[in-house]
Amino acid sequence: MNEITADSTASRRTEATGPSPGQATKICLIRPSIVVPRHNITTMFTPPLGLAYVAGTLQDAGYEVDVIDAVGESLDTRHPYDNDCFLYGLSPGQTIERIDPGCTIIGVAAGFSFEWPPCRELVALIRERFPHALLIGGGEHITAMPEPSLSESELDIGILGEGEETVLTLVQMYASGKLDPVVIEGVVYKAKDGTVVTNQRRARTRHIDGIPWPAWNLLPIEAYLERGYGFGINRGRSMPVMASRGCPYQCTFCSNPQMWTTRWIPRDADLLLDELEYYQREFGAENFDFYDLTAIVKKSWIVDFCRKIKERNLTFTWQLPSGTRSEAIDQEVAELLFESGCRNLSYSPESGSPTVLKRIKKRITTDAVLASIKSSYRAGLNVKCNIMLGFPGETYKEVRESLGFAMRMALAGAYDLSIWAFSPYPGSELFDQIYQQGNIKLDNAYYDSLRSYADASMTKSYSENFSDRNLKIMRIFGLCLFYGTSWLYRPGRPFKILYNLYRGKQESRAEMGIANVLRRNRLRSEVVGQPARQGEHQSAH
Predict the structure, then answer these.
(1) Which range (16-20, 131-135, 348-352, 502-506) has the least confidence?
(2) What is the spatial distance between Cα 58 and Cα 76, in angstroms, rounded to a whole number?
(3) Which of 8, 120, 210, 414 could form a disulfide with 409 if both were Cys (CB 3.0 to 4.6 A apart)?
(4) Residue 9 CB partners (closer than 8 Å, separation 6+)
(5) Residue 263: what are its φ and ψ, rounded to 5°?
(6) DSSP letter assigned to residue 255
(7) Topology given in CATH for the domain delimited by 233-490
(8) Residue 524: per-residue pLDDT
(9) Beta strand 342-350 with 317-324: parallel, antiparallel or unpaired?
């Protein structure tokens, strides 16, 4: 059987092939603290749904599982970090102190690639404290960058893509004392000679309704609920849910094809509503944030879901904050969405230029998007839209087309707009192109540059036709155009924003963003100590 570690470290991790006789398999799953740029407006504190699903699968199989949500366990704390950023949540040292000394398997979630450097540092500190534990990692970054993730970190095994079945297989083999990563589909691991080996991907599960529910009993979910924190607008006690997995489209800037493949699988509407009803009873949930990549793909499914909410006489609000397609949202669907409790949804056309849309394989038309926005606005839905600038090869003419489209979306009824800067995220087709051209070096500076998409102060252009500074100016100008058009055409909106902020309520993403900025300003004077690295224990209370 192949060892999973290099020769230089194999002797200290003999136990990684399985527990000693009589030793229980105890698992700890960790969601690291999150990195937030000082000037980021869109900071959201969201429960870790993916990690909760993995924990639920292991718990359902009878394993002893601890979950450390470093964010949720210290939501009101932040620590100085590199490059004008903060770590929100527990410090690395505090996180490690929370790990049970008896843990034999420790899993770390690596989500956004921007956060990989501090995640990698945390893994190194865990290795120092637990030299014989099996360290596994999973999430978007591990899936997108399997070989670098293993070669530059202390991780033993990485989980690729949809993780529940793969993690369960791995843990079962470890518990039997016969762990052999060579035969496990969907993993990347370190071989005996130190090389990194990536196995064939595991096929996507077809039985999505058979996946155990997230193990919220193992996470500090109440800390999020009592503050109204979530992915969407603060509409009360908000629980995260997922109605489908995957996305059938192949946008060149998105890592979905690598993480989830292009297979879209919806859940059974009745079984999904059973889960939502349980959350209402158990946690007092008032709102549900749908974390789906693309929840509305099939009109018949969304119509069935909305009608069954009404048939069951369920009362709650729900949101689609991550961006959805417009094809299935006509007037009939929009009205059903509102009647069933949906209040906020986001469209992600990404560009208003037909030539850019074609290059990024978006497969939409601007006229169809505008028609759908109008239907949603007439139905009473609060609509946010997303535009992206700075694609490779993008021209000033194409930017003008996008900014003109932003004005048309404002006239159609869209309430909010985000103008992101394109960032070549690992796992996407555009990343591969730019990397192969030698324009990306995988170092901390590159990972830090990925915050450009949300942090206007760090805007970076990947178009050879305009500079970083010009892209930053165009982002700001585009927002002024959108909100200027929206507020001139509907002059009551800015006053409504002020009124909602005064009464402590949120109905739009703009209100959410302003509330986030005000909250961070209150914290700014409370940050003490040195940067939270190398296990330092700083507190921002």
Answers:
(1) 16-20
(2) 30
(3) 414
(4) none
(5) -95, 115
(6) -
(7) pyruvate-formate lyase- activating enzyme (3.80.30)
(8) 57
(9) parallel
